[in-house]
Amino acid sequence: MKGPKVLTVALALLTLLALKAYVDWSEEQLEHPPAQSTQPAGPSPSTPPALLGDDPAELLLHLNQSLQLLRRSIPEADAYWNRQQHGLLRALEGRPANGTWGCGAGPAAAAQIRDFASYPEQHQRFVLHAECRDFPLLLNQPHKCASPRPFLLLAIKSSPGNFAARQAVRETWGQEGEPGGWAVRTLFLLGTARGEHQPDLRRLVVHESWAFQDLLVWDFEDTFFNLTLKDFLFLGWALAHCPHARFVLKGDDDVFVNMPRVLAYLAGLDTARARLLYTGQVMANAAPFRMAQSKYYIPESFYEGPYPAYAGGGGYLFSGHLVRALFLAAQHLAFYPIDDVYTGLCFQALGLQPEAHAEFQTFDIAERDRDDPCAHRRLLLVHRRSPQQTVRLWRLLHGPQLVC
Ligand SMILES: *[C@@H]1O[C@H](CO)[C@@H](O)[C@H](O)[C@H]1NC(C)=O
Ligand SMILES: *[C@@H]1O[C@H](CO)[C@@H](O)[C@H](O)[C@H]1NC(C)=O
Ligand SMILES: *[C@@H]1O[C@H](CO)[C@@H](O)[C@H](O)[C@H]1NC(C)=O
């Protein structure tokens, strides 16, 4: 073919691709989130029957009992979150909830915070939208878990611009397949790009989703303080589209996972532990950061009290069997802006404590070991690695020349 002809063919192909992407996108736009995730937590929690297991009454009873225990560990302080949560707990007892509830209630909640005006912008935004829990799914992968039943579902928190991080995960530890007969499936969880001066990434993300079929994208701004919302929407999605995954690994897109070791660890669990698994690097006796410069800053008028024990959000494992109960628990717990703390709280509300596992290193390892594949071979998960480091480590770990 001559130059111009090649160009014409190439252009035609590109146009077709763009058209396909556009059609996919418009179709997905029409798609609604799974019915369950549209249930806002409100003063009269009505639990949709589809949510509950064979014995819904039993699950609710159990949750109610453990929530009563939780209540005692939440100080009856004047702080915003404490008030919201005690209001919700009252609702569970059938008493009128007198907190400020629902997606429209943000301004009223803000009005009750004495120093709201001095909150950093992201804290203000959090309060103003805290109980908005219903956002449409723009890109879905409804058949991700169709068959075989996933042994391990990788649910990786990412954000629209992190193309290279996602690609590194896909090419390395996050490859889908059935290594050793254990079905592994991968999903990246995304919101939409935030900020006035964002380049428009939508077409690229649609194309990526079409090419790899591993993106879940919801129509909310992908910010640090919206990660709890992302977790919540993911639970609703998993309940609707992946209720039978044996285990879930929830993590960031910049972790390195030693997948053979993770699979061997999970396969070796006895049935009882496998059903109630929640493990990672455990933060016990933690409390809110009160320094305004910290990424994790929480003002005193926002929350008072200690944090529940929780597994560091860089990466942790839990049993897929618990998704239903977690999603139910989350409907009775006010959102908290730090997602791994909130997850710990949901487990606590079910009466479950995280189990510490020394091979999760969410604050990284000694500097001299960071490039050493042998140091990584003895671990399950390390945070954080650049896409390039991930690819290099993975090649070394799986290469024939590795001698440890
Ligand atoms: C939850 O427990 C409280 C106190 O034990 C009880 O009054 C309430 O009726 C229970 N609520 C539900 C929904 O079971
Ligand atoms: C909600 O009711 C409780 C118990 O009656 C009361 O102590 C609390 O002050 C009320 N909160 C609000 C915001 O009205
Ligand atoms: C979370 O996303 C919603 C919807 O896009 C947005 O209105 C809100 O400001 C975001 N919250 C934070 C804390 O960024």
Q: What is the secondary structure topology, with strand pairs?
A:
Blueprint: H1 3-30, H2 56-73, H3 80-92, H4 106-111, H5 121-129, E1 137-139, E2 152-157, H6 163-171, E3 184-192, H7 202-212, E4 215-221, H8 227-241, E5 247-252, E6 255-257, H9 259-267, H10 271-275, E7 278-283, E8 310-319, H11 323-330, H12 339-349, E9 355-356, E10 360-361, H13 373-377, E11 381-383, H14 387-398
Parallel strand pairs: 2-3, 2-5, 3-4, 7-9, 10-11
Antiparallel strand pairs: 1-4, 5-8, 6-11, 7-8
Helix pairs in contact: 1-7, 6-14, 8-11, 8-12, 11-12
The chain binds 2-acetamido-2-deoxy-beta-D-glucopyranose (3 copies).
Explain how this protein is built.
The chain is an alpha/beta fold. The protein has a domain of 223 residues: Spore Coat Polysaccharide Biosynthesis Protein SpsA, Chain A (Alpha-Beta Complex). The protein is 39% helix and 14% strand. It has 14 helices and 11 strands. Strands 1-4-3-2-5-8-7-9 form an 8-stranded mixed β-sheet, sandwiched between helices. It starts with a helix and ends in a 6-residue tail after the last helix. About 10% of the residues have low confidence. The site of one 2-acetamido-2-deoxy-beta-D-glucopyranose has 7 residues, from helix 2.
N- and C-termini, Cα separation: 53 Å
Apparent shape: globular
Could you list the spans in which at least 5 consecutive residues all have pLDDT below 50? 13-53
Count of individual helical segments: 14
Helix content: 25-40%
Write the H/E string, N to C: HHHHHEEHEHEHEEHHEEHHEEHEH
Strand tally: 11
Q: Regarding CATH, which class of the domain at 137-359?
A: Alpha Beta
Q: What can be said about the biggest beta sheet?
A: 8 strands, mixed
Strand order of the largest sheet: 1-4-3-2-5-8-7-9
Q: Report the mean per-residue pLDDT as an integer.
A: 87
Radius of gyration: 22 Å
Q: Architecture of the domain at 137-359, CATH level 2?
A: Alpha-Beta Complex
Beta-strand percent range:
5-15%
Class computed from helices, strands and strand pairing: alpha/beta
Distinct compounds present? 2-acetamido-2-deoxy-beta-D-glucopyranose
CATH topology of the domain at 137-359: Spore Coat Polysaccharide Biosynthesis Protein SpsA, Chain A
